[in-house]
Design the sequence.
């Protein structure tokens, strides 16, 4: 199997390929992949090729290889990939008892917003679970759907959504329009603010790309497009250890002290009771 990846797809593809005894080839943009994600693909034995170009160049090459040689492409242009992803919507409905009013999620290659909406539609058709408004969020420096044109050099700290020409662009627009939702952009500053908010207040450590969904939620609520009392689901499934650079760079440096109780107590401003 083969995939182009900003990191998350390659990690999953490599793991499942290893379990199935298959060879996994991964095409990534050179120097633009978070170290934690790169490590996952490597440890599972994937054959990693770094291309001098963007994710979109990687996907183009991967698609051409799959068309020409006996390899299977497992990016979201593969319909089986979307069929698997849509089941996440089934799980949300099962957990909540019905569909949420709003579902916010990051948009990179646009496979998730496409698949979740497909799942909600199927679940509603089957059981009358309802359908949420789908709100997707791209990083401002990598927002081709918002701009209405391909971004040839996407730039954002949110590496998983640093994509300038989403493969599921048209499907994402269909999900947006059919659900009455929206696709908007959030800045890197907003993403980092949401990233820290999740960590400090909720105890949830996500990668910056996942925080885009919460940044978008806050922006959409401030714009009056989400009412108080509405039930909202945010997709934040990218673990922070996949892309720890911003956690480390933004944290206070550890304090070095002597190995004594007195020094520790002083450093922590502790006083005897």
Sequence:
């Amino acid at each position: 199997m083969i995939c182009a990846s900003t990191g998350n797809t390659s990690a999953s593809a490599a793991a499942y390929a290893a379990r199935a005894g298959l060879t996994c080839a991964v095409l990534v943009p050179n120097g633009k992949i978070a170290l934690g994600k790169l490590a996952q693909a490597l440890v599972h034995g994937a054959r990693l090729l770094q291309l001098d170009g963007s994710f979109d160049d990687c996907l183009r090459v991967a698609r051409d290889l799959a068309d020409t040689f006996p390899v299977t492409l497992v990016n979201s242009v593969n319909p089986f990939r979307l069929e698997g992803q849509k089941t996440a919507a089934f799980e949300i409905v099962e957990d909540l008892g019905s569909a949420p009013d709003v579902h916010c999620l990051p948009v990179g290659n646009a496979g998730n917003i496409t698949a979740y909406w497909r799942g909600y539609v199927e679940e509603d058709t089957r059981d009358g679970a309802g359908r949420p408004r789908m709100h997707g969020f791209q990083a401002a420096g990598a927002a081709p759907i918002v701009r209405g044109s391909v971004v040839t050099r996407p730039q954002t700290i949110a590496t998983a959504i640093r994509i300038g020409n989403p493969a599921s662009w048209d499907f994402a627009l269909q999900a947006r329009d059919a659900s009455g939702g929206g696709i908007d952009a959030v800045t890197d500053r907003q993403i980092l603010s949401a990233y820290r908010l999740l960590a400090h207040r909720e105890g949830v450590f996500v990668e910056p790309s996942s925080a885009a969904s919460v940044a978008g939620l806050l922006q959409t609520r401030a714009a009056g497009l989400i009412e108080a009392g509405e039930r909202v689901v945010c997709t934040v499934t990218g673990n922070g250890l996949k892309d720890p650079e911003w956690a480390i760079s933004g944290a206070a440096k550890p304090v070095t002290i002597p190995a004594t109780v007195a020094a520790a107590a002083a450093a922590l401003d502790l006083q005897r009771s």
